[in-house]
Amino acid sequence: MIQEPIKEYIPQRSYISPFIQFLTLVGITIAALFVFTAIAAGIILALFGLKTLTNTFGFNTQDPHVGVALWILQIVSTTIPLFIAPVIFARLIVHQPQEYLKPTFKFTPVLLAIVFSIMLFSMPTMEVLSNINQKLVLPHALKGLEDWMRNAEQAAQKATEAMLHMNTIWDMLWAVFVVGLLTAIAEEFLFRGVIQTIFLKWTKNKHAAIWITAILFSAFHMEFFTFLPRVFLGVIFGYFVVYSGSIWTSVWAHFLNNSSAVVITYLFQHKAIKLDPDDQHVFNLGAYAFSLIIVLFLLFVYRKVAMDKKLTLN
To answer: What parts of the sequence cross the membrane (predicted)?
Structure first.
């Protein structure tokens, strides 16, 4: 009797459609947000009492404890679940963390320098998009919705101001760490990592996946009057990842965007600079055009450098 050679068993991954993947990710994310919001509320209640808890969720910055409570709320109810959800999905649902999270460092450091330049030269483009966004109004029938969005955004702005009231350089460094680094990692793992990969599989088109993800990224923040500049950021972050194959290029860009806002705010508060971070009329029309041209050119350079690196590795 002839015995056949023993074949190594290779487990087969069950195929999950992109649509089901997306619904599953949304479900995990919502569940994580609810659970960790409850945990954050419990921590605030235990530390400061019911009144501060109520004031925190009402963005009542008159309460002296609300500033610290808002940081607890930011880290526990938002940053942690937004990081955990994509990791759980990539590891336990699709079992492909490398493909969905893209944590590889196999890219040339030159890309980080190009990303820095793109973020620097994109400031005028961001400003003009913000100004356009501010002039957008909803139809008269939706005026109630528009008023609600404006009030919600003003309340969120008050909360941000309370969190970013930085008395010392240590306050500034803490804000850079949380708002700049931790937020960048969590949001990029979720959006440019998992969500963009899902839509790439769904649409079979990297441009469609990038733009859809950018729109969802902006909508997630629920800030209508900064919707367009955030879509723009989401798009360039998306191309950074697609061309490099690494999530860390977009994390770096996201960190630069957030941390620069923190540092500028700190310097303005301490009268080290005169540039008001809320001033949206710093640049002129020529600067807007130059900014867009340079950003597109640098993005082309980024793509070429990234593609050349990939060919070298192959």
So the answer is: 20-48, 68-93, 105-123, 172-195, 231-248, 285-302
